[in-house]
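Changelog note: in this version the structure field was regenerated for every chain. One regenerated record is shown below for reference.
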Amino acid sequence: MKNTIKILVSVAIAALFLWLSFRNVAFDEILEASKNMSWGWVFPFAITLIFAHFIRAERWRMLFHDEDKIPHRSTLFSGVMFGYLTNIALPRVGEVARPVYVAKIIGESNSKLIGTIVLERIIDVVSMLTIMVFVGVFLISDPEILHNLFGIDFSDPAVYKTFLIWGAAATIGFILGSWILYRMVKTLSSGEGRVAGFIEKIRITAKSFFEGVMSIRKLKNWPLFVLYTALIWAAYVLMMYFPLWMFDLHTIYDLSIADAVVLTMVSAVGISIPTPGGTGSYHLFITYSLFVLYAIPEVTGLAFATITHAATILMVLIISPIMLAVEKYLSLKREAQGK
C-alpha cells in the first residue's frame, strides 16, 4: 500500500509538470519545431549515453575490495542499466534494484552494496554542487538571471552563509544521529530474547551498510576515481551539447559547450525530482531555462526537451534488456566453467 501511494504521488507530480510544460503549446507546434531537426546527431548522443553508464559501472567497481567478490564488468554494467530501467517505472527504486541485482549474482550482502550506492550519490551531489558553483561564478554572472532560474538571490551574502550553516548542520546531524543509533542498537542487542535477536540482525545489517558507505576509505587509485567522475559529467554535458546541434541552436542562438554545462546542471536538478524517469520535471526545467537564459521560444525549448528525454528513455529501454540477457548468458557460461 505504501509503495502504491509513492508511485501514485510520483505519477501525479509528473502529470503536474507535464501539464505546466505543455499547457500553452499544441502538439502540432512541437512536431513543426522538430521537423528540421538533424537526426544524425542521435547516434553520437546514444554512444555517449552508453559510455557514461559504462564509466559509472567502472567507477562503482573500484568500491569493491573483496578479491573473491569483485563483479565482472558485464555484471556491473547490466546492473547500472537495470537500475535506470527500474527508475523509469518506479522513481528511486532503481537505486535499490541495482545493488540487489548485483549482490544476488556475486553473493554479497544487499545492505553493503546499497551502502556503496549511497556513497556514489553523495559523491554525485558534491560534484554537482561544485559544478553549480562554477556555473554561477563563471558562466552566469547576472544575479537576476540566477534568481529567475533558481528562485534564490545569489547577490545576497546571507544566502551563502545559510548554505554553509545548513550544510554543516546536516553533516553533523547525520554523523551524530548515526552514532547514537549505533550505540542504541549495540546496547539493545547485547541482551537476550527475541527482541535482542531482532536488534542484532538490524545491527549486522547496519554494519554491513556502513561498510559499503565507507568503502571509499579503501580506495587504491584516487586519481582514476576522480577521472571517472569527471568523465561521467563530461559525458552528461556532451549529451546536452549534441542536441544543440540537432536543433541548430548553436547557430541560431550561438549556444556553446559552456551553455551545455549550464543546461546539464539544470537538468540534474529536474531529474532529481522523484518522477518516473524524470518525466515532466525535465521538460519543465529545460524549457524554462532555455527561455529565461537564451530567449529561446517555448515551443522550440519544449521540442528540445521532449526529443532529448524520449531519446534517453528509448536508449535505456533498448539497451537494458539486451545487457540483462547478455549478463544472464555470461553468468551461465561462467558457472559452467566453474568461475
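Spot check on this record: The first helix runs from residue 2 to 22. The mean pLDDT is 85.
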